[in-house]
Write a structure and sequence with these properties.
- This protein is α/β, with parallel strands linked by helices.
- It is built from 22 helices and 16 strands.
- It has 4 domains: 214 residues, Rossmann fold, CATH 3.40.50; 58 residues, no CATH class; 85 residues; 141 residues, 3-Layer(aba) Sandwich (Trna Endonuclease, Chain: A, domain 1), CATH 3.40.1350.
- The radius of gyration is 29 Å and the shape is elongated.
- The N and C termini lie far apart (74 Å).
């Protein structure tokens, strides 16, 4: 009995291990008792599969920064070796003996290099390099470097660096570190493409690419002090745009088998985490919402989602899955795709994706930012590289079978489709006014003609048809400034699909929606909708507020057609 009690106490302590929500410092994670999924095999594979300059492209929130912090902790001179105790890399005794704690390291993350102007972004870049120079304070008092060399270092510290100094700054720091330690340097550059993405969005792309190209050329191409370098980003930007003449670059994209298990969580890793916190009954929900990405030959989950979901469940065992990854982005890329889907083929492909099916595409993994908006084909490529689409299997004959990875990302598409539809219909003010008038008058022919025309030209959701039709009508009706529109409102003895009341309180209507798979059954569905309105007294709330003129609408949808029955009930 005493042994069982002791075991329970140990288990309780283990279950209280903190979850690393937003923690991207490997040292902090290990020293302060956070749960960690062991990705230290990345170190072994980097050393065994040698590349002088390595670029890993993965979507955001897949552990890139944490892995870079891990590399820094492992290689850097003076680091705390004990934080690797118990991890996989410790079993590689020869590698640890040869490489662990043996190198000076320069580590910068470009994720914060943003600004409305080039000058703003330049200042942020200069500041982060200054901060890294401050961290390498041993250079200030080094006896191994000359006064002239030290003055170059001090220009960065004292904020007197010019454009040329910034371009050469990383190479210069590497050279000084090599002289000080007598050892070549490891260079880590996290989120290398963020400054380019922000520059493109704000209109100073050409100036930023000149700066980044010059910096990378000096640091990665003509740097005699470099042992090896690792970079991360979302996009594999065209070699011609940034990495001109860089023949030592090894790119590890999401299509590659190499290193495929080190970014993202595997099914086993997620199962182990949920079991560790006694949450294993939620494995199916986690898989449905956050799994589905394929990197190389590995199926992986988004770590950010899993950790946040696990955190929520520990506070509330009844917590439902949420779109955590979705809420960290403006999702402009999906919006761009939908806006470009002007042809029937493109709209059909989006419908197929939302329905859980695949589409075949030839992708370009070496885009430049200024090529992204050239065609819808480039948008497909961008969506794949950034995690909004994934592949079902390794590409064959240059073709990729693309699909939406999971339920969370599917939400992004459905929300963007409805948002785009809402914005597009607002532009058609004359026809909208006629639609409002028709609804207030019970003119079902005008209503049906308008709805059928819109259904043909928009994207629909074959896997959630009734919810699509519901959202479709809400998007239309909510554009009327003089109507108050309610969805799934309690009234009578149930919930009506849609209730509309004119702001003067004199007129309102109730809509009940039915989705059928056979056009021959549309009339029957309309009648069933009208019967439901009557039997459940959906008009009760309008009568209670004194609305004098009330219409009831039964609307049946089948694919891109609708049929309507209307009756004035008061």
């Amino acid at each position: 009995m005493q042994r069982n009690d002791a075991a329970r106490k140990v288990g309780a302590r283990m279950n209280n291990m903190k979850l690393p929500v937003g923690i991207d410092s490997f040292e902090k994670l290990r020293k302060e008792g956070f749960y960690y999924i062991d990705k230290t095999g990345l170190i072994r594979d980097l050393l065994n599969n040698w590349g002088e300059v390595n670029l890993f492209t993965r979507p955001r929130r897949f552990g890139k920064t944490l892995n870079m912090s891990m590399l820094k902790s492992f290689f850097e001179i003076g680091g705390d070796k004990s934080i690797f105790d118990g991890l996989a890399i410790r079993r590689e005794e020869e590698l640890c003996e040869a490489y662990m704690g043996k190198f000076p390291v320069v580590f910068i993350s470009l994720k914060g290099v943003d600004g409305l102007t080039f000058e703003d972004a330049y200042e942020r870049l200069r500041q982060l390099i200054r901060n890294e120079a401050f961290r390498l304070a041993e250079l200030r008092g080094s006896m191994a470097i000359t006064d002239e060399e030290k003055s170059s270092y001090l220009r960065i510290i004292n904020e007197k660096d010019a454009f040329s100094d910034i371009s050469e700054s990383l190479r210069m720091l590497c050279a000084l570190l090599e002289k000080h330690y007598g050892q070549k340097v490891i260079l880590l550059i996290d989120e290398y493409d963020v400054p380019l993405d922000k520059a493109y969005a704000h209109g100073y792309y050409s100036r930023m690419i000149d700066l980044i190209r010059a910096m990378f050329s000096a640091a990665l191409k003509t740097n005699d002090s470099l042992f090896f370098a690792v970079m991360t980003g979302c996009l594999r930007v065209s070699k011609e745009s940034i990495f001109t003449g860089l023949n030592n670059l090894m790119v590890h994209s999401i299509s590659d088998v190499s290193f495929d298990e080190y970014f993202g969580f595997t099914d086993k890793e997620v199962g182990d985490m949920l079991t560790f916190y006694s949450l294993e009954r939620h494995c199916d929900e986690a898989r449905e919402w956050y799994d589905g990405y394929r990197f190389g030959e590995q199926n992986v989950y988004c770590p950010w989602d899993v950790i946040n979901y696990c955190y929520a469940l520990r506070s509330d065992p009844q917590a439902e899955p949420k779109a955590y990854w979705l809420n960290t982005s403006g999702n402009a890329m999906v919006c761009s795709l939908i806006q470009k889907a002007k042809t029937g083929t493109a709209r059909m492909e989006i419908e197929e994706l939302i329905a859980g099916k695949t589409i075949l595409k030839t992708l370009n993994e070496q885009l430049t930012h200024n090529e992204i908006d050239d065609s819808i084909e480039n948008v497909w490529s961008l969506l794949y590289m950034t995690g909004y689409l994934t592949i079902t299997e390794r590409p064959s004959g240059g073709k990729y079978a693309l699909r939406i990875p999971n339920r969370e990302v599917r939400q992004i598409y459905t929300q963007q489709v409805l948002s785009w539809f809402r914005e597009s219909v607002r532009k058609d003010t004359d026809k909208l006014t006629a639609l409002y008038t028709a609804f207030e008058a019970g003119d079902i022919e005008t209503i049906a003609n308008y709805l059928n025309r819109q259904l043909i030209t928009t994207v629909s959701f074959h896997d959630a048809r009734e919810s699509f039709y519901h959202g479709f009508l809400l998007a239309l009706l909510s554009t009327c400034a003089t109507w108050e529109v309610s969805s799934n409102a309690e009234t009578g003895i149930g919930r009506a699909d849609i209730i509309v009341e004119r702001e003067d309180g004199q007129l309102g209507f109730v809509i009940e929606i039915k989705d059928v798979r056979d056009r021959q059954k549309m009339d029957a569905a309309c009648k069933a909708a009208m019967k439901q309105i009557e039997e459940k007294d959906y008009t009760a709330v309008l009568r209670r507020y004194g609305v004098e003129k009330i219409w009831a609408y039964g609307i049946a949808f089948c694919d891109k057609k609708c049929r309507i029955v209307a009756e004035r009930v008061s």
